[in-house]
Hints:
Blueprint (H helix, E strand, L loop, with lengths): L2 E2 L11 H10 L5 H21 L5 E3 L7 H8 L5 H4 L5 H10 L1 E3 L2 E3 L4 E3 L6 E3 L2 E2 L11 H11 L4 E6 L1 H7 L1 E2 L9 H17 L4 E5 L9 H14 L7 E5 L9 H4 L6 E5 L6 H8 L6 E7 L9 H13 L3 E6 L18 H4 L5 H15 L8 H11 L7 H8 L12 H12 L16 H11 L5 H22 L3 E2 L11 H4 L2 E5 L6 E4 L2 E3 L3 E8 L5 H9 L4 E7 L1 H6 L9 H21 L4 E5 L15 H16 L7 E6 L8 H5 L5 E4 L8 H7 L5 E4 L12 H13 L20 H21 L1
Parallel strand pairs: 1-14, 2-8, 7-9, 8-10, 10-11, 11-12, 12-13, 13-14, 15-20, 20-21, 21-22, 22-23, 23-24
Antiparallel strand pairs: 3-4, 5-6, 16-19, 17-18
Helix pairs in contact: 1-2, 8-9, 18-19, 23-24, 27-28
Amino acid sequence: MKTSVIGFPRIGTLRELKFASExxxxxxxxEEQLKQTAAELRKTHWNLQKSAGIDFISxxxxxxxxxxxxxxxxxxxxxKRYKELGLSELxxxxxxxxGYQGEHGDVKALAMKKWFNTNYHYIVPEVxxxxxxxxxxxxxxxxxxxxxxxxxxxxxxxxxxxxxxxxCRYTGNKSAADYVDDIVKAYKELLQTCGKKxxxxxxxxxxALVLDMxxxxxKLFHEIYDELLAxxxxxxxxxxxxFGDIRDIxxxxxxxxxxxxxxxxxxxxxxxxxxxxxxxxxxxxxxxGLVNGKNIWKNHYDxxxxxxxxxxxxxxxxxxxxxxxxxxxxxxxxxxxxxxxEYTAYFSFAKEKLVELNELGKLADKKNYCDDEVYKKNHELxxxxxxxxxxxxxxxxxxxxxxxxxxxxxxxxxxxLQKEEFKLPELPxxxxxxxxxxxxxxxxxxxxxxxxxxxQEYIEFNKKKIAECVNWQEEIGIDVLVHGEYExxxxxxxxxxxxxxxxxxxxxxxxxYGTRCVKPPIIWGDVYRDKPITVEWSVYAQSLTKKLMxxxxxxxxxxxxxxxxxxxxxxxxxxxxxxLAIRDEVLDLEANGIKVIQIDEAALREKxxxxxxxxxxxxxxxxxxAFRLTHSGVKPETQIHTHMxxxxxxxxxxxxDDMDADVITFEASRSxxxxxxxxxxxxxxxxxxPGVYDIHSPRVPSVEEITNVLKLMLTKKIERDKLxxxxxxxxxxxxxxxSDASLRNMVLAAERxxxxx
Length: 757
C-alpha cells in the first residue's frame, strides 16, 4: 500500500535553518548563503523520505518563516506599507514576518496567531481593499524542479484557496466574498502551470474545513472549488484536511471531482463514521491520516491496520498518510543519547514516522501480517507495562473537593484589599517575566549542564544577573518587578525538570514560529512536585528591592499543552495532576513572602476543540477549574496574575474571566487591540494589561506610539484603575539594547498619562 507525508520539518536535524536565518538577520551571511542552506536542507529532507520508501513526498512545504505567509506572497497579498520599504523580495518577506526598523522606514510585523489547535504560529495575511490577488511568484515550481533534478517526484503543496480566504484579515470594507473571482483565477493559473509541467498531483491544504461551517461557508467553498475543479488540466488535485473531521462538508466533497481526499483519522472523531455512513467513491483515492503528526508516541500497528483493512474491505483505494504535517514533531530520535531504550522504544519522531509509514504500507499488503516480525515487535510493545502510574497522585486527586476550586472572597473585594496593600500608582507598569537570555546566560547554563561549572558557581552567576535585572528595572522605573528567569531554559521545560513524571530530550526541537524553536518535555507518567522549584530565586530577588517582586510560574494547562501528552489517560486527568503540583508551589511562594504571583497560561486556547459545540464539555469545563485549583488557597491580599499570548481569545472571554485571576496580561499589539471590544462587551472584571508593544519584533516603539496605544485602551473603556502597562510577552528572545529602549519608552508613556489625568 502506498504512503504519503503531508509535510516535513524544515528546521533541520540540528536547527540549521534557525541559525542560518539569524546570521542573515545579523548581516553575518548574505542572501545567497542563506538560500544555499535552505537548498541543502530541502535536498536532505527529500532524500530522507525517498530512502524511507515514501510514495507521495511533498514539495513547497519548506519555508523561511511560515507557509501561510509564503502563500500570501505567492498570491501578491502584500500590504502597501511593506512594498513601499523598497527592500529586496526576501527582506520584504521578512519585514512582514518580523517588522522592520531602519533606513528604509519603520513598520510593525503582521499579526501572528496559533495555527488551529497546535503550538505553531502562522502569520495572518492582510488584505487591503485595493489588494490585487494574483499569481506573482514561482517558489512552488522552483522547488518542484529542484526535487526533480534530484530524481525525486513530489506533490507540491499549498494552502488552499478556501482556508486562505478564511485566515486573511480584511482591513477595509471588502470581505472574503469580494476576492473569490481573483483567487480562483490565481489557483486556476497555478493548476494550468502544474499541468504544463506535467506535475501529477498538487496538494491543496484545507484545514479550515474541519471547523464549524455555516451555509455561507459552504457556499464560499463551492464558489471556489466548483470553478477550480472545472479547470482543464491533467494534474490531479488532492484536497488535504487535518486537525479534525469534515462532517459539515463531507457529503459535498465526495461528490466533487477531487482525485484524492486527505482525511485525519487521528483527531477526526467522526472520520471513520463518515466514511462508513456515506461511503467513499471508487474513482478517488483516500489519503488516510493514520500516523499521528502531532504526538511522539509510536503507532499502534494493530489498531491502524484494522482500520486499513476495513477501508480495503469497503473497496476504497487507500494511501496511508500522516494525520498532518510532521512539522509539529521533532526531527529524529537519533540525536537522543541520554534517554534509555526503556523510554525511546515508545517514541517516534519525524524520521522514525517515515519508517512507520513504510512498515505499515508493507504490512497492509500482507494477508497474514500478524505473523510478521515487525508486527509482533510492535504488538509486544503495546501489550507491555510502562510503569507510569503513582498511587499517591491518584489518591490526592481523588480527595479534591468542589470548594478547592473556589477562591474567597470574591474578586471585587480582593481588588480593593490589594490596592490598599500595594499602593501602586495608576497604570502600574510591569513586564511579563523573562528578560533577554544573553550569550553569557546561555553559556552559564550549558557549562553547568556539561559539568564544567559547579552548582554553586551556576547559582552565583544567576544571582548576579538577577541583581543586575532588579537594578535595571528600578532604574527604568518599573513598578512591579520580575527576577528575569535567567535560570530557565524554557517556561515549560524548566518546570517539567523539577516535577515527577516528565522526560526530557537533548535535541528534540520543534518550530514554534520563524526561528523560534521549543523543546517540549514528554509527559511519561503521573505528575507530582516533591520540592519547591522557584521559591529560592523569587525570595532572593525580593530581598534586593522594596518594590513588589512577582513570583513567576507556568500554569497547568500550558505545561500540558506545550508538552507531548500521554495517550493512556485523559487530558483532564493530566491537567488536574499538574494543577495540584503548581498549587503547592503557589502556596510555598506565598508562605515565603511573595505577594504577587503570576501563573502563565499562554497556551490556554491551544487544545480548545475546533468545534464550538465541544468547547466546554471537552475542555473548558475542566481546564478553567484546574487553573483555579492552583491559586484558590492563597490569601485575599495575594495578587494572582496570568498571561496569555498569540491566540484568538475574543470568543472565550467569559471563560477567561472565570479563571478568577486578579490581573491578566494579553498579547494584543499585533492584532491592533481587537480584544478590547470583547473585554468591554463581556463586562470583564479582571484587571487587564493588553500588550502595548510587540516583543517578537526587534523594532523599538516610540513614547508617542505607546501613549496612543494606552489612550486607545482607555477610550475602549478599560477603566483606569484596572489597566496595567506591559509588553505583550516575555523579553527572552530580545536583545538588551532594544529591550531597554522599549521599556523606558513604555514607562515614560505611562507617566505621561498619569500626569494628564
